Amino acid sequence: KPLKIYGVKTNFIPWDLKTQENEICKLDIGLMPLSNSLFSSGKCSYKALQYMATGVPCILSNVGMNFEVASSGAALLADSIEEFQEKIDKNNKKDYHKQNWKLSKN
What is the tens place of the pLDDT at every residue in 46-83? Predict the structure, then answer.
């Protein structure tokens, strides 16, 4: 379902096997918000891995495998919608591009 964050324009794109790679490559930033539930903890971070494989910077909920995936330094973690918003805002203000994502985490 669409993620609503005050002051951040989001565009929800339903997943489609035929267009997924092309759509991911168009992203400015990839978001992977998850609830902190047993079900979410069992997810394999597939969406995060797709973002990272295409060079799209991403912010992930600090749930399950996302912690391990983000420990490589290729993603940021957030524990709440407010943290998602803070990290999106911080990186938008720095105006870094995809290839400079690691620099924008500081």
Answer: 999 999 999 888 999 999 999 999 988 889 999 998 99
Write the CA distances from 88 to 28, 31, 37, 64, 106, integer angstroms: 10, 9, 24, 21, 13
CA dihedral 6, 20, 39, 74 (to 10 degrees): -70
Report, as an integer, the average pLDDT of 11-17: 84
Q: Which residues make Cβ contacts (< 8 Å) with residue 79, sequence separation at least 6?
A: 61, 62
Cβ neighbours, 10 Å, residue 28: 13
Q: Retrieve residue 12's tokens.
A: 């929800």
N residues, the chain: 106
Specify the pLDDT at position 2: 67
Distances (CA, A) of 39 to 36, 43, 95: 8, 7, 35
